[in-house]
Design brief:
The chain contains 19 helices and 23 strands. 53% of the residues are buried. The protein is α/β, with parallel strands linked by helices. It is 36% helix and 18% strand.
């Protein structure tokens, strides 16, 4: 460690050939794979090893999506690639990579100790997940990604890979590279020493950056992302790194006291949905009035387990996503509270001590019967099918046997993100976004494909770096020459916030406003007017924060609020552009269209919409933040490559080192 001085501020200086930002499953795998490939001059820089989505999120049966590895059902890499590609607005080369390497990455996790189940003959059994034509899903239970993270971290520690904890990335440093730019390092805040002027800033010079900071969770108020996960896309966007598909995210019903996805068996046991006043008064089973029959309502609840994410295509014919809309209507519009009650059946099928299973439809009844779960109450059915689902909440001091579970429709996953090629390299060379921050998914994706994408992307980035990018990182003089403007601007801004000049700005208030704004206007219910007005509000907040000073000297929060506001402006710009071009409701969101079709004759016309025509399915929106605004381009999707399959030819290319290029 050395130091440099910038505008009178002492900054600790470090050099590594490759720096990995983030310590979730994707970032840890990048470190492990680089080290295996002999690229050992590396370091992990993270806000916290115990924070982030990988370690702190899940569902009833958190899914890992990979090639079918059991039974007689036919599957192959091209077929899986099409399952990933056919969701729309997906690049085919990325889909092919994720399919081709899914088994390798899955078995890497198995060898590290992740307890994916297999039968006595060694077949890794699968199940069908959403948007999946086969049986490709596997799970180690509600904490699959947690097990992955712990196993990868154990191996990273065994290899003594350097980890810098409590570091918040505030700048992605870049340098000229011909007609473009390349990564040069990162500037971070040391959150453990932030009160020390000589210790708060850390400069990491690097030839390569693997960016594994997760989804931009801090944008939303109503969110199932863990509270400790805020995201880190803002510094990358401010450095001019191109993003894509920022219109595409997933939203679904989740508990809010303890943030957790309520998919799978939580819905398949058919719990009771109850709406109350703010103080818990006036309980009402509100779903009944919006469905044409008891069976339709009960089928929709059951199907919500299979079809957990909100999807406008599943509003037709009183489909499962009507439930999401009704929950949103109660909470966001009527300002009431909504609960799932596992202690009692929905009143329409309750028989005073049991359930009338003749009302729930053939699919639900057969599923419960095959599971041995034709039990009297939802909690008894849940205990039979998935006792871990009950234990999970018990470990958070929530007893589903006694108390209802408060819920909302929450932001859950970002299908878009930073744009990359088939080696996960971005528009800025030597910068590799991996995991959820990489926009490898399109409009729809099979459930569980995100966990696989993070492992495949981090492997691909590692392979390319190890093969081509072993250059020494910039030294002290070089980094000052190449990136001093960015460093000076960041440090000067921090000094301004702490010096007591300008209007006082409270970053907590700004965070609250931007979260409320995004959940109301940039989540699963959208309009052009809403997106544009929200973008203007975000721009005003950004102007205030850039010209203000911090209330109480909250330096880290000020940098965070600035970066989230930049991200919000870019996301809302992407949404507004899509609607202006004639884009309609698709994927995870409904675009309010007054002359459209209402999702239910019993629901307000504010939710009228037009279904997607498929016009944009073969296009990808790319967006670049310029500092003055956003530059938006539309391009054709890259098709699934038609590649050489003759063994001798591939073998020769492989031996000659031509396959990683």
């Amino acid at each position: 460690m050395k130091t440099i001085t910038v505008n009178g501020h002492s900054i600790r200086f470090f050099q590594f050939t490759t720096v990995i930002a983030g310590s979730g499953a994707a970032g840890l795998n990048a470190a492990l794979q680089l080290h295996r490939l002999g690229h050992t001059d590396i370091a992990i820089v993270t806000e916290g090893l115990k924070t982030g989505t990988s370690l702190n999120t899940g569902s009833d049966k958190q899914t890992y999506y990979r090639l079918t590895l059991s039974g007689a059902e036919q599957d192959n890499i091209r077929r899986m690639a099409h399952s990933l590609f056919d969701g729309g607005s997906t690049d085919g080369d990325l889909a092919l990579c994720e399919a081709a390497l899914s088994a390798r990455c899955f078995f890497n996790l198995v060898e590290l100790g992740v307890p994916f189940p297999h039968n006595r003959y060694g077949e890794y059994i699968g199940y069908k997940t959403d948007h999946d034509p086969c049986m490709r899903g596997s799970s180690a239970g509600p904490h699959t990604s947690k097990f992955m993270t712990e196993a990868l971290l154990g191996e990273v520690r065994r290899r003594a890979i350097q980890i810098y904890d409590t570091c918040q990335v505030i700048e992605v440093l870049t340098a000229p590279d011909g007609e473009g730019r390349k990564a040069a390092g990162i500037l971070a805040l040391d959150l453990s020493d932030i009160e020390n002027p000589g210790g708060r800033y850390m400069l990491f010079s690097a030839s390569n950056i693997v960016y594994a900071v997760g989804g931009e969770a801090g944008l939303y108020k109503t969110s199932v992302y863990p509270a400790a996960q805020t995201g880190g896309m803002g510094p990358a966007l401010r450095s001019g790194i191109k993003a894509k598909n920022l219109t595409e995210s997933q939203y679904g019903i989740a508990s809010i006291k303890f943030r957790w996805n309520l998919s799978g068996t939580y819905q398949q046991v058919i719990p009771r949905y109850v709406s109350t006043g703010i103080n818990g008064n006036n309980p009402v089973e509100f779903l009944d009035e919006y469905f044409s029959s008891k069976t339709k309502m009960l089928e929709a609840i059951f199907l919500k387990g299979y079809q957990w994410p909100f999807d406008p295509e599943k509003l037709e014919n009183e489909g499962s996503s009507l439930i999401d809309l009704l929950v949103y209507n109660e909470t966001a519009i009527k300002k009431r509270r909504v609960f799932l009650d596992f202690t009692r059946n929905p009143s329409c099928c309750d028989t005073q001590g049991g359930m009338d299973f003749s009302l729930i439809g053939d699919l639900a009844r057969e599923y419960l019967e095959n599971s041995g779960a034709l039990r009297a109450s939802p909690i008894e059915r849940l205990a039979k099918m998935n006792p871990l689902a009950i234990d999970l909440y018990s470990s958070r001091h929530i007893d589903l046997r006694k108390e209802p579970l408060e819920i909302a429709v929450c932001a859950q996953h970002n299908n878009g993100g930073l744009s990359g090629n088939c080696w996960w390299e971005s528009s800025v060379r030597h910068f590799f976004p991996v995991g959820e921050v990489n926009g490898s998914h399109g409009v729809y994706r099979p459930g569980g494909s995100a966990l696989n994408a993070g492992q495949v992307g981090s492997l691909r980035a590692s392979q390319y770096i190890a093969a081509h990018y072993n250059q020494l990182p910039p030294g002290q003089e070089d980094i000052c020459r190449l990136a001093m403007g960015q460093i000076e601007e960041a440090v000067s801004l921090g000094a301004q916030w702490l010096a007591g000049r300008g209007k006082i700005v409270d970053p907590d208030e700004i965070r609250a406003r931007l979260g409320e704004r995004m959940s109301r206007r940039g989540a699963h219910i959208r309009s052009l007017e809403g997106a544009e007005s929200a973008r203007a509000e975000a721009g005003a907040d950004l102007k205030d924060i850039l010209n203000g000073r911090a209330a109480g000297g909250q330096l880290a929060k000020m940098y965070r609020a600035r970066d989230l506001l930049v991200s919000q402006i870019v996301y809302l710009s992407a949404i507004a552009d899509y609607i202006k071009k004639g884009g309609q409701s698709r994927g995870g969101y409904l675009i309010q269209t007054p002359d459209g079709k209402p999702p239910s004759g019993r629901l307000s016309g504010d939710f009228s919409f037009l279904p997607d025509t498929g016009e944009f399915k073969k296009l990808i929106q790319e967006i670049t933040y310029t500092g003055e605004g956003c530059r938006i381009e539309w391009r054709d999707i890259r098709p699934i490559p038609d590649v050489e399959q003759w063994f001798e030819t591939v073998w020769n290319d492989y031996r000659a080192g031509k396959v990683i290029e």
